Amino acid sequence: MSNSSLKKVLITGAGSGFGFEAAMRLAQKGFDVIAGVEIYAQVQTLKWQAAERKADLHVEKLDVTNDGDRRKALDWGVEILVNNAGVGEGGSTVDIPGANIRHQFEVNVTGPLLLTQGIAKQMIKRGEGRIVWVSSREGLNVNPFTGIYSASKHAIEAIAETMAYELQEYNIEVATVNPGPFLTGFNDRMFQTWESWEDDPSERLFDYSQLAFPRAQFDPEAVFATVTAVAAGEVDSFRNLEPKSMIDETKQLQQLPWERKVTDGLGTRHQAIKNAYKMKPETPVSA
User: Fold this and answer.
1) pLDDT at site 33
2) Angle at 147 (CA atoms; ends 62, 245), nearest 5 degrees
3) pLDDT-based confidence at 287, cuts 50/70/90?
4) I need a surface site. Which of 49, 54, 211, 227 has the fewest CB within 10 A?
5) Which of 40, 149, 170, 208 is catalytic?
6) Does residue 286 lie in a domain region?
7) Do residues 273 and 211 make contact, with C-beta atoms less than 8 angstroms apart?
8) What is the C-alpha separation between 116 and 16, in angstroms, rounded?
9) Strand ranges for 108-170 from DSSP E
10) What PROSITE patterns does the database record attribute to this sequence (predicted)?
11) Model pLDDT for residues 62-79, shown as the tens digit of each residue
12) Percent of the chain surpassing pLDDT 70
């Protein structure tokens, strides 16, 4: 079973979304929670929100891409690390500018891994610890217009699985949480990043002003509960995909590249691209 003695939690990207809610719930469950936010302007806001929820949070400015912030985190005695901070860059793999590609990987992969390296070595010295990577269903599957984001999450999957093998002899637990399409605003913001691209719009392959996230989205409660439970050690499975109703579809889609022919669909528009042109932003899953 997971180690129930671990109490000090660091959650990155706790200013909103999954990280925000998991930080609140873990604090309410009695964990000693450090909530990391990207910018100083979020610190006081999160403190006020925590007070309203009667959640005892310690809030810190922690930009995972900032070396000084990562060094600062080494003084906090972290026993459970939840790597939740992330951004999403939407757009075709042949359109997204280089600066945006690099930023995607700095925030989602390089920064969190460098933070984890230092904290993991402290855990090893203590002989116990837990590392949770908030990945994505996109770390297991792909979709048009989320390929660069998906690539960063595929990288997280490789890192987390390898890390689990490397750290098992040191009693360090490693797990992933893989959210599918949930209505937190994250997916819809990802389909707006083209507005700040520094490129020549006439050279773009697609008209992004007409696109939206191509799937209806679920209520995020399932992910709030799962991230909290995995971080708390109440769930001991390595991979934790939500919603569970999408597990079979996810596994089937993982099989498709083995069966795909290079000529499949040539000359036709992929159905998911058609959906992106038809879907309205922030469409909830019908009950």
Assistant:
1) 98
2) 85
3) low
4) 54
5) 149
6) no
7) no
8) 21
9) 129-134
10) ADH_SHORT (PS00061)
11) 999 999 999 999 999 999
12) 99
At residue 286 the predicted structure's pLDDT band, cuts being 50, 70 and 90, is: confident
Q: Are 149 and 190 in contact (CB under 8 A)?
A: yes
Closest CA to 13 of 39, 31, 32: 39
Among residues 138, 241, 230, the alpha carbon closest in space to that of 186 is found at: 138
Domain of 195 in residue numbering reads as: 8-245+255-277
Q: What average pLDDT does this structure show over 94-109?
A: 98
- Say what the pTM is: 0.96
Residue 173 half-sphere exposure toward CB, CA atoms < 13 A: 26
Q: How far is CA 206 from the centre of its chain?
A: 26
Is residue 212 a part of any domain in this protein?
yes
Question: Is 149 one of the annotated active-site residues of the chain?
Answer: yes
* CA separation for the pair 136, 114 (Å, rounded): 20
Q: What is the CATH number of the domain that holds 68?
A: 3.40.50.720
Separation between Cα atoms, residue 115 and residue 101, nearest integer Å: 20
- Residue 287: inside a domain, yes or no? no
Q: Encode pLDDT of 256-265 as tens digits.
A: 999 999 999 9
Which pLDDT value is given to residue 4? Answer: 75
